[in-house]
């Protein structure tokens, strides 16, 4: 998906493409950026990689890596930093920021691209004939906002030979799902190697730069039941407006929604106040199914989640367009003399049970309330994900809803109690750099700071687990830390576990893999500096 987005971005750019450099080519005075692109797994040069920048300029320029992986990019002067997009078919696309020296140059930059993998195979019906136009989805096991999920990261349809091939997949663990493509493939929706439930599926480990060929898959001639969503309009919505449904589990709308006013996009329908619209949804396999719903009211956009435990049979589910308000709370600064002051313009970030985030901002009196409901999952509890914009060296010391400790036990449901967040001055900061075994700085590494005494899996509050990514010099900073003892880890980002938005450091089982390899850090008031080594350095 990243590659597709990047190629779309390139298509809309105004580009100036200089010739690839040669050994005899002397850099001109306009050259700012030169370096080499290498394969993050093999260490070999990546020929033909495109380097595009600066990304914030109206006219972007482009260079291509030569057979030695080297490139020269000429850009306008008066730059302090240079943002570039680096892409190559068969590799993960990267966006990087580099410092530019006083001579308007950046030389000897080393850019590592992580190769992607390929999954291929063939699907047949029970008579051994090719199953044509079967939808094939690759579900990657990854962490989003701290919770493990199976996320669809790429897909295709089988051709007239029943063959399929999914390209540009990040390294990681996958389950492959097969489902009907309208009326052209009336086959049983299933998971590789031909089972109905994800707990029974074979997990395939995909390596970057390699193609994994699956055994032939036999698909039965029937499908599972469907979930019929009865969307009921309410008086709180506008007289008639779009209701958008996002299906967050593998599957598809069974057939076009044949009701008056329905859009051809079957995930968006027109529902009037007091009207009911039925949307049939066919999950790819039994198990939990989640649907995100949003609609417009006079007070703004409303969101909610519908969670269904699908057992394979037909289900009727009511979706009422009424949502609870999000939690209300306040952020208070505790001064050393005991005085209390409200903190304005603080971003309080909450995470719903479905791993979706919502950010609310405090007002002048330190309180926050989100009447526009720009959030998700009001029918589910929240936990406290982060508090951003704290002044000076302050840190969060407590967060409670009455007698309930929201820091360790999660938030209660909306409206049950005020969320009282207390902040104190005198927090700490951790600054450092990450190097590999050769002593080279590691850019774009993931650094995580975990409590030295691990919390239970039920109490993994992200605000207690801090993280940062290293800059181009391998440096990082973590601030607003509560005094205490922590364990610090650094991962290389060149492996499937830690692609963008993946947060395996919140999973105790994942962290156990690296027991004894982290750095014990004691944080007090003030700053602590450390040098770190990677815990998962790839072998070149």
What does this structure look like?
Helices cover 4% and strands 46% of the residues. With 540 residues, it is mainly β. It has five domains: 2-113, Immunoglobulin-like, CATH 2.60.40.1120; 117-219, Carboxypeptidase-like, regulatory domain (Immunoglobulin-like), CATH 2.60.40; 227-310, Sandwich (Immunoglobulin-like), CATH 2.60.40; 329-424; 428-533, Immunoglobulins (Immunoglobulin-like). Strands 26, 27, 30, 32, 33 and 34 form a six-stranded mixed β-sheet that branches. It has a five-stranded mixed β-sheet with strand order 1-4-3-6-7, covered by helices on one side. Strands 10, 11, 13, 14 and 15 form a five-stranded antiparallel β-sheet that branches. The longest helix is centred in the N-terminal third of the chain and has 10 residues, at 2-11.
């Amino acid at each position: 998906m990243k590659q597709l987005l990047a190629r779309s971005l390139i298509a809309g750019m105004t580009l100036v493409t200089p010739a690839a450099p040669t050994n005899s080519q002397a850099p001109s005075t306009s050259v700012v950026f030169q370096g080499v692109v290498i394969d993050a797994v093999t260490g070999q040069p990546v020929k033909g990689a495109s380097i595009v920048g600066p990304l914030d300029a109206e006219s972007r320029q482009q260079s291509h890596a030569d057979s030695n992986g080297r490139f020269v990019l000429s850009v306008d002067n008066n730059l302090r930093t240079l943002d570039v997009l680096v892409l190559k078919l068969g590799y993960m696309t990267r966006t990087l920021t580099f410092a530019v020296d006083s001579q308007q140059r950046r030389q000897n930059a080393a850019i590592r691209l992580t190769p992607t993998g390929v999954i291929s195979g063939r699907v047949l019906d029970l008579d051994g004939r090719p199953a044509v136009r079967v939808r094939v989805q690759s579900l990657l096991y990854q962490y989003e906002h701290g919770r493990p999920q199976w996320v669809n990261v790429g897909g295709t349809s089988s051709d007239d030979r029943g063959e399929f091939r999914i390209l540009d997949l990040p390294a990681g663990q996958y389950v492959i799902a097969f489902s009907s493509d309208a009326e052209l493939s009336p086959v049983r929706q299933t998971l590789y190697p031909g089972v109905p439930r994800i707990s029974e599926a074979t997990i395939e480990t995909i390596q970057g730069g390699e193609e994994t060929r699956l055994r032939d898959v036999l698909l039965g001639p029937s499908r599972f039941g469907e979930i019929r969503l009865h969307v009921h309009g309410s008086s709180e919505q506008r007289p008639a407006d779009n209701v958008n449904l996002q299906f967050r589990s593998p599957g598809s709308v069974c057939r076009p929604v044949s009701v008056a006013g329905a859009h051809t996009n079957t995930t968006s329908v027109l529902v009037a106040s007091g009207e009911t619209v039925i949307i049939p949804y066919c999950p790819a396999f039994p198990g939990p199914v989640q649907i995100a719903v949003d609609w417009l009211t006079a007070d703004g956009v409303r969101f909610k989640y519908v969670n269904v435990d699908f057992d394979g049979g037909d289900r009727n589910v009511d979706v009422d367009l009424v949502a609870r308000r999000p939690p209300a709370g306040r952020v208070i600064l505790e001064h050393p003399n005991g005085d209390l002051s409200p903190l304005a313009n603080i971003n309080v970030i909450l995470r719903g049970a479905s791993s979706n985030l919502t950010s609310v901002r405090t007002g002048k009196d330190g309180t926050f309330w989100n009447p526009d409901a720009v959030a998700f999952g009001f029918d589910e509890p929240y936990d406290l994900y982060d508090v951003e914009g704290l002044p000076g060296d302050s840190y969060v010391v407590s967060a409670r809803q009455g007698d309930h400790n929201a820091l360790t036990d999660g938030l209660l449901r909306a409206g049950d109690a005020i969320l009282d967040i207390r902040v104190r001055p005198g927090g700490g900061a951790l600054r450092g750099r990450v190097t590999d075994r050769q002593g080279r700085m590691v850019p774009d590494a993931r650094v995580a700071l975990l409590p030295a005494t691990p919390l239970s899996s039920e109490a993994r509050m992200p605000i207690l687990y801090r993280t940062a990514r290293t800059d181009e010099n391998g440096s990082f900073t973590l601030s607003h830390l509560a005094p205490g003892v922590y364990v610090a880890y650094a991962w290389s980002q060149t492996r499937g576990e830690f692609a963008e938005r993946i947060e395996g450091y919140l999973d105790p089982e994942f962290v156990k893999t690296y027991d004894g390899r982290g750095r014990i850090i004691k944080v007090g008031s003030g700053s602590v500096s450390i040098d770190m080594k990677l815990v998962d350095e790839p072998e070149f």
